[in-house]
Design a protein that fits this description.
This protein is α+β, with helices and mostly antiparallel strands. It is built from seven helices and 15 strands. Helix 4 packs across helix 7. It is globular. The structure holds 1,6-di-O-phosphono-alpha-D-fructofuranose.
């Protein structure tokens, strides 16, 4: 089954309009265009760094901007989107030609993990689809919705294969791009994350900045079967959220980017609206759990469009245990 047939079937069973199908197909098209750029590597002529920095204070690559522009153009063509929040823009982008009753808002990270492009690492695009409040004034406030209100979420992974992973609220499903037909084919329906898998993903070099509960949790994992966990753990860190979360969706484990104290007022590195919230929907729709360590991610009320939050995502038993460490 290809993506279009899957969406039409889901929209029938979920009573979503076929407008949702159209929007997700447009995002899939953006993914195919970005995949083609990424696959060309330096030959695409967009791997250089620009003098500019984004609102996050991070150096921008031309590929970041090109990917952002592809997303904006594909979203604009649907006329179904009132506005979009992008990692690459300080303020929301509003679409001048949307339909009068355009039903959607989109938050997206056009190229997450882009620092990995320099050495041909796995990168991805992440998106979140929210309802556009009817007759709302165009403002940042319209995007500040709890993650539980997401209509759909997903990512495109640019790896050895190009994959699209989505949820429209009825499970999490993975599609693989067939290079010959340029169709996304359903290859992993209804992903299920095991409740426990002894593998964690964290940037261990930041250990001295973590809060005590996270330091204790990781120390107990590292103690292995002689320690309180009585289990040997493995570690993976791709430094590309899409790649790390994809592995967890495929085999379990936990992805951790905790609050750290290097930058006191910064609640971690990852952004809520277009990284942690969409990934949390995918993880929970696959039977996993998504937490800040102290609260469910999907219940958070965003305070601003580039807000950062701690991210603890993955196998439900492990995330439950990490929350217990934070309660002690
Ligand atoms: P870049 O987009 O700057 O490569 O950052 C990627 C990312 O936002 C996320 O994809 C990774 O999980 C995380 O940052 C990696 O952070 P570290 O640089 O601390 O490993």
């Amino acid at each position: 089954m290809n993506l279009s047939d899957f969406l039409n079937q889901s929209c029938v069973t979920l009573s979503h309009s076929n407008q949702l199908s159209q929007l997700i197909l447009s995002i899939a098209e953006a993914g195919k265009q970005i995949a083609a750029l990424v696959a060309k590597g330096k030959l695409a002529g967009v791997s250089h760094h620009l003098d500019s920095i984004n609102v996050q204070g991070e150096a921008q690559m031309q590929l970041d901007i090109s990917s952002h522009d592809i997303f904006i153009n594909c979203l604009a063509a649907t006329k179904l989107v009132v506005g979009a929040v992008s990692e690459e823009l300080a303020s929301p982008h509003y679409f001048p030609d949307h339909l009068p009753d355009a039903p959607y808002l989109v938050c997206f990270d056009p190229l997450d993990g882009s620092s990995n492009v320099a050495f041909d690492g796995v990168v991805g695009s992440i998106f979140s689809i929210l309802p556009a409040p009817p007759n709302a004034v165009r403002s940042e406030e319209m995007f500040l919705q709890q993650g539980v209100h997401q209509i759909a979420a997903g990512y495109v992974l640019y790896g050895p294969a190009t994959m699209l992973v989505i949820s429209v609220g009825a499970g999490t499903h993975a599609f693989t791009l067939d290079p010959d037909t340029q169709a996304f084919e359903l290859t992993h329906p209804n992903l299920q994350i095991p409740a426990h898998y002894p593998e964690f993903a964290i940037n261990a070099s930041r250990q001295r900045y973590w809060e005590t509960p996270m330091q204790q949790y990781i120390a107990d994992c590292l103690a292995g079967e002689e320690g309180v966990r009585q289990c040997n753990f493995n570690m993976r860190w791709m430094a590309s959220m899409v790649a790390d979360v994809h592995r967890i969706l495929m085999r379990g484990g936990v992805f951790l980017y905790p609050k750290d104290n290097q930058v006191i007022d910064r609640a971690g590195r990852l952004r809520l609206l277009y990284e942690v919230s969409p990934m949390s929907m995918l993880i929970e729709q696959a039977g996993g759990k998504a937490s800040t360590g102290r609260a469910s991610v999907l219940d958070l009320y965003p305070s601003q469009i580039h807000q950062r939050v701690p991210a603890i995502l993955g196998s439900i038993n492990e995330v439950d245990l990490i929350e217990q460490y934070h309660q002690r």
